[in-house]
């Protein structure tokens, strides 16, 4: 069974049709890049996958079931500008999610449990190349380091689906290249299914195993909000997850 199925999916905001006739299936392990004009509904699409926006019509199925209408640990998310807690160190920020979930009543975790969370967080920081920055505070990090931190935070939840909204858009080209290698490695190591919005078509082609183009096919000048964008191109790319050698 496909991981995700979209059947005639639509999203409206009031009278405005933002997305319409979305019909695709996505298998576990795909890396889907999403491109399209500004305002055509790419972030809205990601929000539906995350569960923060409900579909207006049609079906959005995860493992054959309607997707839960609130975010859960299956779906991690990284935005272009990520908000971390400024008064916590890098390590503290990465540990926070697990500390919250294991200390629902007391607010703090102690002893062995805390030690285990710390070790897992440190291992995750090593995976994203931040092991030497664990005691720094977010304002002391470069843009690339902040995105590494955001990835480490998202991966601590062991998500099956990682949602990336222009994660590298604000970075310098050199740093962006390093992040491309990192995301490729994480995709493979964690067997993730990734959806990544990008404004950089080249980035989409070089990273993803599939490229979706969102566009409005129908325009009515008298009713500009009557038609939404849909998937106008669905291109398989020559980049499969399991067979690809790891990028160093
Ligand atoms: N919560 C909301 N309420 C009402 N309208 C919304 C809401 N969220 C998005 N929209 C509208 O939906 C349309 C699509 O917005 P969205 O942010 O999904 O586009 P996008 O393709 O991600 O744009 P960009 O590339 O500029 O980030 C826009 O016209 C926007 O104004």
TrEMBL record:
Segments forming domain ABC transporter: 4-241
Keywords: ATP-binding, Nucleotide-binding, Transport
Family matches, as InterPro entries: AAA+_ATPase, ABC_SmlMolc_Importer, ABC_transporter-like_ATP-bd, ABC_transporter-like_CS, P-loop_NTPase
Annotated SMART domains: AAA
Annotated GO MF terms: ATP binding
Signal sequence, renumbered to the chain: none
SUPFAM superfamilies referenced in this protein's UniProt entry, alphabetically: P-loop containing nucleoside triphosphate hydrolases
Top-level taxon of the source organism: Bacteria
Pfam families, per the entry: ABC_tran
Family classification: Belongs to the ABC transporter superfamily. Drug exporter-2 (TC 3.A.1.117) family.
Name of the protein in question: ABC transporter ATP-binding protein
Organism (species): Pantoea trifolii
Species lineage: Bacteria, Pseudomonadati, Pseudomonadota, Gammaproteobacteria, Enterobacterales
């Amino acid at each position: 069974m496909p991981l995700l199925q979209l059947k005639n999916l639509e999203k409206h905001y009031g009278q405005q049709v933002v997305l319409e006739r979305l019909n695709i299936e996505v298998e576990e392990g795909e890396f889907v890049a999403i491109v399209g004009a500004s305002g055509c509904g790419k972030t809205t699409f990601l929000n539906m996958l995350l569960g923060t926006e409900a579909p207006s019509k049609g079906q959005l199925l995860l493992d054959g079931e309607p997707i839960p209408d609130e975010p859960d640990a299956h779906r991690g998310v990284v935005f272009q500008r990520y908000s971390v807690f400024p008064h916590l160190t890098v390590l503290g920020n990465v540990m926070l999610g697990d500390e919250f979930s294991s200390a629902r009543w007391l607010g703090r975790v102690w002893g062995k449990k805390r030690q285990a969370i710390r070790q897992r967080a440190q291992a995750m920081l090593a995976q994203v190349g931040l092991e030497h920055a664990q005691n720094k505070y977010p304002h002391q990090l470069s843009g690339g380091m902040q995105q590494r931190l955001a990835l480490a935070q998202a991966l601590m939840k062991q998500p099956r689906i990682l949602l990336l909204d222009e994660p590298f858009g604000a970075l310098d080209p050199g740093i962006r290249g390093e992040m491309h290698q990192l995301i490729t490695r994480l995709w493979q190591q964690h067997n993730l299914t990734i959806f990544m919005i990008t404004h950089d078509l080249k980035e989409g082609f070089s990273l993803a195993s599939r490229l979706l183009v969102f566009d409005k096919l129908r325009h009515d000048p008298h009713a500009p909000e009557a038609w939404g964008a849909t998937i106008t191109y669905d291109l398989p790319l020559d980049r499969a997850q399991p067979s690809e050698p790891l990028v160093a």
